[in-house]
Amino acid sequence: xxxxxxxLSALRAFEATARLGSVTAAADELSVTHGAVSRQLKSLDEHxxxxxxxxxxxxxxxxxxxxQLQSGVGExxxxxxxxxxxxxxxxxxxxxxxxxxxxxxARWLIPRLDRLNQELPQLKLKVVVSDxxxxxxxxxxxxxxxxxxxxxxxxxxxxxxxxxxxCPVASPLLAAHIDPAKxxxxxxxxxxxxxxRPQAWPQWASAKGLAQRALEDALQQGQGFAHLYYLIxxxxxxxxxxxxxxxxxxxxxRSGRLVAPWGSIETPARLCLWLPKQTNSRRSEPLAEWLKxxxxx
Length: 297
What we know:
The protein folds into 3 domains: 8-92, Winged helix-like DNA-binding domain superfamily/Winged helix DNA-binding domain (Arc Repressor Mutant, subunit A, Orthogonal Bundle); 97-153 and 277-295, no CATH class; 165-268, D-Maltodextrin-Binding Protein, domain 2, CATH 3.40.190.10. The chain is 47% helix and 20% strand. It contains 11 helices and 10 strands. The strands form 3 sheets. Strands 4-3-5-10-6-9 form a 6-stranded mixed sheet, sandwiched between helices. The chain has a two-stranded antiparallel sheet with strand order 1-2. A hairpin with a 2-residue loop joins strand 1 (53-56) and strand 2. The chain is rod-shaped and about 95 Å long. InterPro entries: LysR-type_TF_proteobact-type, LysR_HTH_N, LysR_subst-bd, WH-like_DNA-bd_sf, WH_DNA-bd_sf.
């Protein structure tokens, strides 16, 4: 027994032809060939066992049976078009919500936020502080900007933007009393640490060939801070030597608020834009390109 419901593609060709009165016009609208539409219409005639169109000059008119089918099909496709248009409009008009760790937001993104909004006004960008330790896991966000080490989860799209570099930084007054040729000399000072990046000092010390035991002893005498932002501000105030992503202290290094005489190292982490798989690429791709350009300035 033949199915009562013909293929949707055939009904779509029928609806367009009935509405436009021409196979050629229907083919143009559907971006298919004239022959493809004709074959779809023929398949409908065979499915129902009746002719749905009759020739009228160079065009086509609906038969009685065609009018009967069009009464339901036309309304159905009209509702589909309206629903799709409404959804697309809502998605494109909704703010693009970017989650970002507070330190990265305050020290790098906010100083550039006005230019970003001017150059990408179509995003209607909304920035929020990340409330999840894993980028891409925060709900109700369009994307997350964060440093993290691979491997990446399978349920997110990851756009790598920049390798992470970390460096010890200190106020110019404090750094003046330390020999930059001897990285171990900084252990005689108070080291500033943050719980969010416990691996930073060990990574740097290992890359510089410094004894881990000497580092551990110095860290036991160090000062801890809950957030990286406070850690950097403490270094600016001369409270000790902090270690931080170079990206977050570049403005301070340029202005002379901080110095980094001991150099930086590259870590396995990357600054990435994390996107849920269903994110609209037409909105996320311009943001990714803007971030890449801003990071390379």
